[in-house]
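Notes from hallway chat w/ T.B., transcribed later so I don't forget. T.B. wanted the structure written out for a chain they're using in a teaching module, and asked if we could keep both sequence and structure tokens in one place. Agreed to drop them here.
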Amino acid sequence: MAEAQTGKTKSIINAKYKDKYKKPDWLGVQINAHCTARHEVEVPEKKDDKGKVISKATTKTVANGIDVEALRAMASENDIDPAPYAGMNVGQHRMNIGNRLRSLTLKRHGLTINGKWVKADAEWLKDKNAPEAPTHNRDGSVIAKAIKGTEPSDKKAAAAEKAEAKQNGKVARK
């Protein structure tokens, strides 16, 4: 009753974050486009004051919040287990799965939507301070980097060189 009188509702989201995320970013647009529940509504015929028809009766599709099953499917196809969020409300589903998708998208520079790879927007990646190149493959595995000194054979050679230099009283190269 107090909520109805004051017009305020309880929220688990801090007000500063609500304002920050009010307008959807690139990922939010993708989620909304593919996970918004839609339904048909009948629009009645409209007449002017003289009884002349100004618009015919028709139906239109309207958005009606998040389709949780579509969101869970998007999570699953991007190797995110949606099960831990089963006891949460729709908003918490959207927030938690959205955060997981955001993290994955920043690492992979894209995400899978309805079986197709969608490359992330370059400006969005830049705004989110994503690395210049993806750090993870589409399957979520880490991309192996072939940097000199990181391969096992190079490490062994470096260790042997260091040990030899130590024996000879010389400073080893880095």
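Follow-up for T.B.: The first helix runs from residue 2 to 6. Might be a good example for the class.
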